[in-house]
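Contributing new records

If you add data, match the layout below exactly. Sequence lines come first and carry their own label; structure lines follow with theirs. Keep one chain per record. Anything else will be rejected by the validation script.
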Amino acid sequence: MSTTMVYQYVVTLKNQSYRYIDMLGLILSIFSVACFTMQLVGSKSVSLAYLIGVIAIPVIVIWNLAQQAKKRKVYYSRALLIAALVWMKMPYFQWLVFLFIILALLEYQAKYSIEIGFTDNEIVINSLFKKRYAWKDFSNIVLRDGLLTLDFTNNRILQREVEDDDDDDADEDEFNDYCRKQLAHSVHSS
């Protein structure tokens, strides 16, 4: 029997790291193509693996750059996986196979925006590993001007920008009132 959690509010945080992840994917792709090209030019016979790497990876990179120009999300995982397969054939740096596969597999998760779900019983931060907190773990929670502030009772603060929500299901005042009531309730029930 599966039970799904129903959240009164879900706040999505902006993910600022996607630009760095895209830059890393682009740099690794270009580096790989350069190495594969040198190996292809320097070898006495044409290797199909190097040829695929030299052709397929730039096609994916150009496609991604075109998509980025249109302000769309891009993923370099395909280019990284192709590069990993070609790195297996390389006479040097074969250990890069593992790095490229790991980076390709983690790219989607790293680009995923973190969501914070608020229920009457708990607050769940949905990241790579879900973190659950009771309301009593917070001294204050405020959403103001697109900035969410979680003030923990242990003096730790998490403050992040939230994604623009086109369909304003609830305004900031409603959310802040809800949080104030939950925090007050958690203090009285302790």
